[in-house]
Amino acid sequence: MKKVGYLGPKGTFTEMAAKAVFPNAEGHQYKTIPSSIDGVINEEVDIAVVPLENAIEGSVNLTMDYLLHNVHLPIIGEVIVPIRQHLLGLQKNSGDLEAVRKVYSHPHAIAQCHNFLREQFPHAEIEYTNSTGEAARYIMEHPNELSVAIGNELAAEEYGLQILKHNIHDFENNHTRFIIVSNNTVLTKDHSPLYTKHKTTLMITLPSDYSGALHQVLSAFSWRKLNLSKIESRPTKTGLGNYFFVIDVDHGMDDILIPGVIAELEALQCSVRVLGSYPCYSINMNIIAK
Ligand SMILES: O=C(O)C(=O)C[C@]1(C(=O)O)C=C[C@@H](O)C=C1
Predict the structure, then answer these.
(1) Is the shortest distance between the CB of 77 and ligand 1 below 6 Å?
(2) How remote is the CA of residue 227 from the centroid of ligand 1, in Å?
(3) At what angle do helices 257-267 and 213-222 cross, to 10 degrees?
(4) What are the structural domains of the chain?
(5) Which residues, at least 6 apart from 27, have a Cβ–Cβ distance to it below 8 Å?
(6) Model pTM score
(7) N-to-C CA span, the chain
(8) ipTM surpassing 0.90
(9) Which reaction(s) does the protein catalyse, per the Swiss-Prot or TrEMBL entry (predicted)?
């Protein structure tokens, strides 16, 4: 049986993502995103599932930078999960939300609910936790505090909390994209009925800063009619203004088009690292509810 590592404790969105794609795997919970990735490097687990991008908050830079700078681990899959943030608390505190002193959650969950928090709890303190699951567990463990958490319905169930308010995220179309990394596993379109398409992610470093450099890079994709679904620049961490580009191509690795792009970019003196070519899965609320 495969072992899958993810951000714990029980009741995180990452657990939802991992269980949707690997329903029969043995789950291992880690305290942070880097430690779940290290779990694969240290061979404690076969696979790690980590968040990479949220529709409201943007990229999870911690994940991106850890994969770019700290480890060499291929991306073997992607899963997109709808994110429904709820206000969670103990039943005994449910009657008096005005009395709430502190709101606990993961920084991204807090950021997804900024407007709600400003309107409903203008004077409450925000306490950041390593995950939404950790916030929910904290509320359960501290019944005498006048505190609430932001998290999902799995966490409410796991820690015996009540959903005090449903769907408190500020924008309806809230989704998070998780990536799956592994050294010993290859996923295919047949792995799961949630399959949608294949993608390839490339990390490209330009040789130097000259006019039209990025245009040349992009034209290698455009004349081959390769659609890009994301382009992002991240600091190389070698000095101000030094960046590389991370580009998602809506196309799996093949024998002609992607190798052609790579050869063309290398001829332009760019360096290219393939971060992964992988199947994408997408889940809906009905699957989560099961
Ligand atoms: O705290 C969790 O539940 C997580 O799985 C982390 C995380 C994130 O890092 O963005 C995942 C999905 C949501 O966007 C909020 C938090």
Answers:
(1) no
(2) 28
(3) 160
(4) 3-82+175-289 (3.40.190.10), 86-165 (3.40.190.10)
(5) 3, 4, 6, 15, 18, 19
(6) 0.94
(7) 22
(8) yes
(9) prephenate + H(+) = 3-phenylpyruvate + CO2 + H2O
